[in-house]
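To assess whether the prediction recovers the assembly geometry, we first specified each molecular entity separately, as shown.
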Amino acid sequence: MTENDKLTEEKIFESATEVFIEKGMDGARMQDIADHAGINKALLHYYYRTKDRLFNAVFEKIAGQMFKKFAPIFDENLSLEEKLRFFFREHITFMQKNPKLPLFILNEFHRNPGRIRKVVQKIDINKLWTVLEAQHKEELKNYNITRETIPQFMTTVAGMSVFPFAARPVIASIMEKMGYDFDQYIEERKEYAPDFIINALKKQV
Amino acid sequence: MTENDKLTEEKIFESATEVFIEKGMDGARMQDIADHAGINKALLHYYYRTKDRLFNAVFEKIAGQMFKKFAPIFDENLSLEEKLRFFFREHITFMQKNPKLPLFILNEFHRNPGRIRKVVQKIDINKLWTVLEAQHKEELKNYNITRETIPQFMTTVAGMSVFPFAARPVIASIMEKMGYDFDQYIEERKEYAPDFIINALKKQV
DNA sequence: TTTAAATTTGACCATCTGGTTAATCTATTT
DNA sequence: AAATAGATTAACCAGATGGTCAAATTTAAA
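The predicted structure of the complete assembly is given in tokenized form:
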């Protein structure tokens, strides 16, 4: 029973996750989710009272997973360069397995900005940066990163990783026409991105 | 009369544009658009037969505008560096005025990949690159751009410009907590981005 | 085996939504 | 001023959609 409980509820949750990611909150239909899980629509409301609650459950889990992927950077005992390489390798690999996640998250954050606070509140980014700064005090002297340009740097890193997936349909379509392969392009980006950034940040002596 | 015709049809088109960008195709309601334009809902169907047709009209115009912003790069008589600076200045300025466009476009392309071909087909990107290559044959020798890394380079440029707007809610929320101002960050990005890229591409002699 | 609780379902409902239609209003033409 | 064509509206419709409910079925406890 408890066994079966979890199976049904999990099946619902997983189906909801797939359908919501594919169609978004507005585009998803409760019937689709029920069909996808092979159950009656009323069961959705039995486990999760409303569409909103179901969506919230799905979204919070996904957003959590996504941000967890950033965490290891702060405790791994690596040099800054190695951390950058580590991040791009891990993060892009994760998105290769979940290519539709980025756009889904950006989109639902945009449509309901209230959600962001819940996720962002949990993180003390100032502290995170202070830790990072302390860990690499000497190293940082060789790079063009100042208090003023942290946002520029951070969003550049995030963008180089996320943007190819958020814009995948457009990029893939253009590349196909030019004779490039999108998957290979992604694979190469794991190295290209950190190389690019490290090169950009190095102070010209 | 013809005068009034245009006024009504334009009013509808503009209202539709706003509502579609704000809520997306799925989230937008014909009634919202009618209300926004201050007219009866039936009038929408009088001028544009269906929601799909109305959306298509809006989307094609927007996508067209967006891509036109990339065009000047290919005929302006500037150095590569200057073209990069020109692009970021113009493109980011354009998005400052239409901050919700990028996510809207990415989203609708994702939801209906068929649309992309219509837009992409019109552009012969191979030829565009050949032109660009010929224009800057000498200059390119100093940069780390090869046939193989063109996609990496192009998407990096696009991403550095577009990503901050696509992820604006998240970025702005985090920055607010860190004491940075999003608008100022965007303003500074017009220079930071080309600087960053040029630095990254310069061959270490 | 009986009983009670939890799970699953089919049928149903109120509301919303895109779309239609017949009638009214407006303006131009004759 | 009458007629005609186009613009605008109120009322309406069929189908979809989120959600409910009582009945049926399964599972666990007694």
